[in-house]
Amino acid sequence: MERKEWPLWEVFIRSRSGLDHKHCGSVHAPDARMALQAARDVYTRRQEGVSIWVVRADQIVASDPDAKPEMFDPAEDKIYRHPTFYKLPDEVDHM
Amino acid sequence: MYTQAIDLPQPKDTQSPAGSAENSDYQAEFDAKLARGEFIEAKDWMPEPYRKTLVRQISQHAHSEIVGMLPEGNWITRAPTLKRKAILLAKVQDEGGHGLYLYAAAETLGVSRDELIEALHAGKAKYSSIFNYPTLTWADIGVIGWLVDGAAIMNQIPLTRCSYGPYARAMVRICKEESFHQRQGFDLLLTMMCGSQAQREMVQDAVDRWWWPSLMMFGPHDSESRHTEQSTKWGIKRISNDELRQKFVDATAPQARVLGVTLPDPQLKWNEARGHYDFGEIHWDEFWNVVNGNGPCNRERLAARVAAWEEGAWVREAAVAYARKQESRLRDKAA
């Protein structure tokens, strides 16, 4: 039998207005419209969302997990990027 | 809904290969992550036996959800009221959704949905033994919610903390929905218990038939469970089969009193010293018989799955053909 697996789509849902879309899972579907329909049926059966994005999984470019140190460690020693780095006099410390 | 951690003998290829120096670095990092209680994510390095164990367990779990739609779906057209019919439809739809969350989690481990489904249809993959029992009366629908989903919840809550991120997240979503399943079951049974004598007898009969198979859902005794130790080390299994079974009995026995039914075990008795209920021995021959394909409904369930898949083939093909046509029209327009 010929394999006719539907492509994979990643699903992002905005749970209510004012919030970001957040990744919540994936569905298989032959096209974008059916992917949206399936995402609605699978991920919003209890009003979990007010807006859905679907993105073909093969269109997502991801960082390499093995490159975590090069990608993220350089930020580790830059503590001056955080407001708590600066010790100010008590009178103005709420700044 | 239902994981059973069915421990069948696995081929010997799940032993760790003699690791290269590079592999042992990765292994050390993997072990350190587990020790720190961190999650393993889809693209992180993982030992092959860990990956295989997860594929087996998550896909068994997914199959159980999908096959689990059959015994209940059987009653949708015969639900006694519109309200109960709407509830049952919602529940069966949830089971389908749970299967999809889990297939998606398994797919992050590098297996395809089609492969998993083919393995189920070819009889090579297992699903929870509980679904190989028939649903003979409407009371069975209530008892499945109360006992079967109740047992599933016990099993599933610790899995929300399992070390593999995609599986843990799928379980969080599932556990949120599972509580509805158990409560609607108990509610259904309470309603029947307030009905006629015949209805009360129907509930008791269903409890008599489902109690022991529900206890079997937790899998073999810890002493017989081949994978438990390794799965515990990997942070996949957090609580042992026997501990979970005991928790389930302790939670359920008082509920049976509220409902006014007797659990069919003469040895079931509160043990003050242990702080737990004692209960009788499970008929393990029956368990293994069902797991190995000879339960009352094994063939029927698989045949229904295969028929649904084959009869839906034209829909899947049509959807693909339509998508291709739309795409080519878009291309022509752009050209």
Describe what this molecule looks like in 3D.
By secondary structure, chain A is an alpha+beta fold. In chain A, 18% of the residues lie in helices and 22% in strands. Chain A is built from two helices and three strands, in the order ββαβα. In chain A, strand 1 (8-14) and strand 2 form a beta hairpin. With 335 residues, chain B is mainly α. Chain B is 64% helix and 2% strand. Chain B contains twelve helices and two strands, in the order H-H-H-H-H-H-H-H-H-E-E-H-H-H. Chain B has helices at residues 21-35, 48-73, 82-107, 113-121, 138-156, 165-193, 197-216, 228-233, 241-259, 284-294, 298-311, 313-334, and strands spanning 269-271, 276-278. In chain B, helix 2 (48-73) packs antiparallel against helix 3 (82-107) and helix 5 packs antiparallel against helix 9 (241-259). At the A-B interface, strand 2 and helix 1 of A face helix 3, helix 6 and helix 12 of B.
Describe the SSE topology:
The complex is a heterodimer of chains A (95) and B (335).
Chain A: E1 8-14, E2 21-28, H1 32-43, E3 51-56, H2 68-72
Chain B: H1 21-35, H2 48-73, H3 82-107, H4 113-121, H5 138-156, H6 165-193, H7 197-216, H8 228-233, H9 241-259, E1 269-271, E2 276-278, H10 284-294, H11 298-311, H12 313-334
Antiparallel strand pairs in B: 1-2
